[in-house]
Amino acid sequence: MTTYRCECGWEGQTSDMKADCTTGSGEEDWSNHICPNCGMWQELKDYKIVEPRHLFNLGDFKSHSGATLPWKVDCDALEVRDWRCIAAVLAKQLMPFGSVEGVPRGGLLLAMAMKQYVTQGGLLIVDDVLTTGGSMEAHRAGRKAQGAVFLARGSCPSWIDAMLYTKGAEW
Length: 171
Ligand SMILES: [Zn+2]
What we know:
There is one protein chain. The protein has 2 domains: about 5-50, no CATH class; about 55-165, Rossmann fold (3-Layer(aba) Sandwich). Helices cover about 15% and strands about 35% of the residues. It is built from 3 helices and 12 strands, in the order ββββββββαβαβαββ. It has helices at about 80-95, 110-115, 135-140, and strands at about 5, 10, 20, 30-35, 40-45, 50, 55-60, 70-75, 95-100, 120-130, 145-155, 160-165. The strands form 4 sheets. Strands 9-10-11-12 form a 4-stranded parallel sheet, with helices on both faces. Helix 1 packs across helix 2 (about 110-115). The mean pLDDT is about 90. Bound molecules: zinc ion.
């Protein structure tokens, strides 16, 4: 599916746009597409095409901690419905929790999806991918909490649960 981007920053598919069928002569012309965010109309070819994002990517990437990684997970490829599924799986693994916080920015969608599983108990801190655990630890700031991530690369601190694990940080 092709995703288009408007100058205003809106991204979506043609099914989200209104086609403008009025022309000066009153003839139907479906080439103009109206951005549902800013209302600007332009021909489809004048929208920027957004390259599809992929969850798993081979190549040399720099981690937050400066290490070179031979593959990466791009969680921007995940949509809200994906996070809902991940949250449902994690909720089964976790102890009951009374509040949830996401590590910005990667953990925010997961935190939102975890909210429906809040009952009672302590704090849950979530993030998308854990490599060293540094940002989870920093966000916890010494507080008592349990943690959860979508994917843990390599060893995972004992207070953090992951839906998926890889054996080593580099692979
Ligand atoms: Zn727009």
